[in-house]
User: Fold these one by one.
Assistant:
Number 1:
Amino acid sequence: MKFTKALKYIILFLQLLIFGCECKNFDAINKVIESFSSDEDPNKKEIITSFNTSSTAPPPVAIMMQGNQKSPAPPPKTKTACMDFQDDRINHGELVVFVDSVNGKSDNSGESWEKAVNSINIALARVVRNRAENLSKGNAIQPAFIAVAAGTYTHEHENKISSLGDGKEMIALYGYTDPILSNLIIAGGFLSGDKCSEVDKNKQYNANERKTIIDAQNNASVLAIAEKGLTNIDIRDFTFINGAAKEVNVIAAKKDGGAISLRGEDLDNITFRNINIENSTAENNGGAVAITGAGIGNVVFNGLSINNSTATQNGGGFYASSGDIELNSIKITDNKSKNGGGLYIMANASITVAGKNNSISENKISETNGAGIYINSDKNHSFDKLAVFKNTSENPANKAKLVGAGVYLESNDPAIPIVIFTNSTI
């Protein structure tokens, strides 16, 4: 291969731009050109690595734009690729079960949208059976994904198809020892035929057309994770309505968490994404959400809205006595309880609030402490970009006695906890 003189000058010019005036590098460039210009052993190209061995870095080169020249446009942002159900999940051994209340059938396999089942509980039963069979044969179990098509799933519908019984949650993750129910994603927001397992990557995505509602019809909590040691559970893109936590068969723990109850011991890596909760009640604590199991690890909510929920005791919106809890982009509005109308944190729970547009507002209490937030925990807590406003006592006699309308802090140790608010208004 022979280089033309013009090409040689171009290379020298590029060298000048990159290395400035360190002329000792010209010799190395010439050697590189000669090595490419001969028909000898191509291994001589290794000399390329020799011309950047200067002990001191060359000075940066400033390139000035003159006249009407414009800076080159930045490269276009690449859109995150679709995680295809078939190619990226099923073909890699992941168990995927499809649910469609309108077009599915209870005796379908659930292996595709065309063969979807019509009940979330039937889908869970498919996962349990598959994993139990694999474990009985000594095989490893694979992650599972339950894809739920948009629509409304009522307690009556689920009970008719899969015999929930009184007091049974709509999504009940217990009754089978770990790992039968671990490593599980349950996601709503799909349309029949969707190929991407991330809802918003599907064509013509419109969240309003994909609303997936689970209506407990005041029969029980919507979802409970109650089996000891469950890990890596991800619940996405649902609206939970009309949950009612109440004692059943002398199980007092069922009285906490009108929509979501995390009462299993040693739970870890539990994630909720894009969850809306409305009109839920609890006979005890946590009108919408209660996290009470001993030894709970990481729990994350990315996008959580709680509205018009009520607890007879504490935490009208959100109650936690355990766990390292992260709340990102939350809106807790118009909830009621004795204390901690919006958020009640106690015992071994720690809270981090981050993300954007966080608000705890217009919550009410019947007693006198912490209409917005009540903290009775010796852990550390952090709140960022949080607006706390218009929280009050609904009892006229207690309004004058109200302590901490926005935030009330109580601790047995005056040195603990450390509570940090940044970029927030109260």
Number 2:
Amino acid sequence: MKPINSLVQFLHRIIIKRKIGTLTKVILKSYAIIIFLIHGGLIMYFGIIISTPFLSISFFILASWITIYIIKSISLDKDLKQKLILNTILTFIFVFIIDIGLRYIPGHNQGYMESNGNMFYFSAYRFHNLWNTDQDDSVEYTGIRMQETNEFIYHENYNNLGFRGQNILEKKPKECRIAFLGDSFIQGIGTPDDSTVPYLCQKILSSKFNNITTINMGRMGSDPPAEFQLLKKYFASILPDVVVLTINSSDINAMLTRGGFERYRNDGSIHATIGPWWEIFYASSFIFRTCIHKLGYDALLMKNSKRNNILAAKKLTESIIATYTYTKKQNVSFVLVINPLKEDIKAGRFLHGLDMTERSIKVLDKFPQISLLKEFKSKGLNADNSEKYYWKNDGHFNSKGYEIFAQCVVEHLIRLNEIKQNSIK
């Protein structure tokens, strides 16, 4: 108890007896306000918050300051008021220590970037303002980039069009090009260049066919509406013979937070959705996150009862059909691949409404659909050993997982006779 009594006496001298200077008070309050406003602006415009203890400090300074101001404005006995102020400060210090502790518990209400050892909170609502149809992607992505988390580190090479892989040159006669559309699972987060799905598919197919080229058009955080815009933008540059669109349950979440094609304005810019007003508090405090989830909110900051998975599945289906319709007009083959996440493997089915999209596409029966959930099981990937194929914290495939992914896709492409006959060796 001695350390606690010493702390109380110290705070009593500083706070009650006003041994702390006015300038110091102004500095502390200014620091808290400035940090909070900066992060508020970041999340409102970019959807990003640097989720560090410094933000938590500003959050608790502001909260304690407001509480003390309220106490001072109430007509109370002077001694009682001083005790309340002192108890308020002690309470906020105690809560702050707990909040910092929760921050460093692995997997405890952490976002994707935080679980990978980064100090960033990304909003599911605002971050993808940057996916505009008129964005010059190649300027941002051309060259070599390093991917580093607390589980893996490697370099990625980006080509002349801003996609991962080798430069895309003029198409040769009799060349068969297969374009892969998708998110980070097609981009290949979690693995080097030589073990992404498009790269491995080209490697396997080249042992059976001539003049095969695969093009990796995967983008981290992308979804089918954005991929449809990307395909239209670069179609003339890549001239694919086959388009493989991959989806997973994160696309359902994207439809819930970003919407479908209605997100696009006429000029190609994005009309971004806005998260709940309290999102900055969610980003700032892990205690607040714990309370929010206890109240029934999920990682998208939605009440589970308010999630409209049916509407999200409908929007996802519409974007898939739009991509198929575009490829059909271009006389290009189209194949849909449904990729299970680790949680789908463990559940034994597609979650979050993706199963509804799967059923809708089957009923339409307009184009080939490859559902990898059963395929993975036949290859030996199941709920009991999924950790061998997916990164534990990151959630993406490792090289073994991507290898099985590629094998399944190649087997189906050959079975569906999607490779040009003049390419056969």
Number 3:
Amino acid sequence: MPNIKLTDLIDRKTLQKIQDGFSRFTGIASLITDRDGIPITKGSGFTTFCSKMNRSSKLGENLCRLCDKKGTLKAIQEGKVSVYTCHAGLIECAMPITINDELAGCFIGGQVRPPEIDEALLRRRAIRLNLDPDEYIKEAYNTKEKNPREVARAAEFLGELAGVISTMALKNYTSLQNTKMMEKASKAQAVFISDMARKMEEAIKHWTSDISSVAKMEDFTQVKKRVSEIADQGSELYSIVADSMSFIDDSEGKAALYEKVYSPAVDFTITANGLKKSLPKNSPELIFNVEDSVPEFILGDVTRISQILFKLTQDAILQSDNSKVRVSFSAQKKGYATMLILTVENQKSRTADEEIKFISDYFSTGSKAFLVHKIITEMGLPLVYMLIHQLSGTFSISKDSSGTVTTVVSIPQLEDKGDTK
């Protein structure tokens, strides 16, 4: 695997999201590096002591990387997460990311200090780095203090996430080798999301339980405040992951089509309203409508169609330049079938003309060759392609001179006139 990088198998955006979530949940800094110790993500939760002092010079940067490498080597040799003290006296933990027992990268956490600081050591280190010793020591005290139990729990969680990343990378690597990148990548992503959600849920329960148990032994007000903060962090992080769980059965290829009689006006409006509620402030305006041409009741797979609606609308909002996104359903009779037509109109889209062509060609051919284009993977289009293909639907995308991008998905359904309800 000498020519394959971790970022060839898992995109940086996904790695960054995992890393950011870990730091928000545990309250410690983190970083993911490649096999050579070079960062492939932006540091999450980095302290001023580390980012603007220790890593401010080439010497300091090299010392930090050397510590990271030693921590990774220790973890490989011991077969478990390594917890160690870095050159600046802070506590760190590291776990390698491996593919077929070969090193692909490392998940590193830390930048926390023990209760006591060796000021003499820090003063010597500051002089070596050509920094003001007093300022250096001051910033060291500004780092977070963690007790051994907290560090051990964070290290355990870091190890679990590194294992999940390794599993995901291995599945994608195998997919590449088997020339089935699209299908296998979806499976790897599903395993990752599922494992991560379960492990986070377990970690949250353990963490909040441990902190609650010390309420009788410490200052109750402080403990209560801390439990609340950590519980909020864990709940927020878990909900982000749980939002993706509805896609897992389809991406695993386990679920068969599940057709039932449904009401497009009711079911799709619920999906659209749910998406509206999840949007951050200052998002583009989402205008949703089910036209009169759509039958009151339809026989079909409402779950898969709702997933397509959610994903394409979400992508349009993310690509919109703070304008409007119009989403509508219409219908046309075609032989015995009713063609249900989803139209997503994105005014002032940032999607480039070249990217529109990549998307159009990808849906026309389904070729894995298009997966090298960032726009395809970042928008989650392999999953949308799979869903539309399963439903025997069609896809088209176009962009006019005003910058409006229009996406149209047509899916054959059966109108229900009351004899199947």
Number 4:
Amino acid sequence: MQQITPDFWQKSYFHRFMAHYLARKYGSDFTRRADKIQPSLAKTINIFAFCCNLFLFISKLIFALLTSSIAIMVDAFNNLSDFIATIIAFVGMQLANLPPDKEHPHGHAILERITALLVGLLVLLIGFSFLRASVLRLMHPEEVLFNPLTFVILLIGIIVKLIMHIVYKINGEFLQSQTFKANSIDTIGDVYITSCTLLSYIFSPFTNFPVDAIAALLLACLVIKNAIGLLKETISILLGQGIDKETEKELYNLLRQLPEIKSWHDLRYHEYGNVKVASIDLEVPYNMTIAELHPKIDAVEQEILEKLQIKLYTHLEPQSKSGDYCCQDKRLICLINSALQQTQSNSRLHDFELNHEKKLLRFDIEYYVDDPNTHFDQDKCREKFLRNFKRALEDANLDTFYASYDWVIGIFPNFNHISR
């Protein structure tokens, strides 16, 4: 877990107050022991949220029934969904803290993502229920009865949700918890929802226009929008979201510090909850031994683990010695690079291997994807490159010579556009 700097706790009064509370509860060195106190602190926060949402649901439900306000009813059941989500989050985070075992060597932290998925589905279901109730109220309006106590309850609800937002936001960053970060967004959304409900409740007695139903309809749409956003983000992570551009740049900067690393390619990144694992191919001098390289590479891997919390596995490849190739081989490399330029100008060649005895031509291509948001079609890219490469061989009168060779070509996408 990445250690939070002391400046983090000086950002605002609320950060300082939270730091004071955590220091009293866990000791002055709580920041350095974030991974140790995480289960206990997460449990405390979930119990706090559990009590807040239960209180808000019961109080708003009572006053919604007393005033016949559909907007307050929607707000009440929104708090019920938050209450249920808190239970799911509590169970999920407890299971996510289980230690690694034989069947799950990277631990169980991915369960926190699955928890977020369940919460998103629940919120989406309730959002559509709100939408249906709002449409029915528009079709069959009912009078909203004004009650001063309801105004007070809604105001208290806004204050409670603001406090919950602050608690979730600060501790989500401190514990690097996606669930708490998501809940911080959800709670500030609840503040907007309750504020809108409060305004509709105030104006309802002064007009025949169905302000209450319109407000409920808008709130239902907002709930659905937030749920879809949460689901999209969670599913993206569960499907195997790639490394973000800033982290990748920091990782490459750490690799550059070792002069023996001449180049790198084929970075593969995986997240298992808060466990980050990556592998990469490093090109090193062909005349250095493993005994010479191992301690240096090991030191870089350790530094990356400490600074980026990424467990990096490296595959070492000897950098090609240009003197080993004859003039025709060097010409072949130029033709490959020329075909690459025609296919995608920023793509590059690596892992080139040419064995005349076995009649084997093997190399990999790091393909620069123009638009990171588009789907990468490997077959289409391969077909385009081969078309350009075969044309280049024909123009150089080398197509017949290499026609009997086995061609093994690997194509790997580069979405972040960062390379050596």
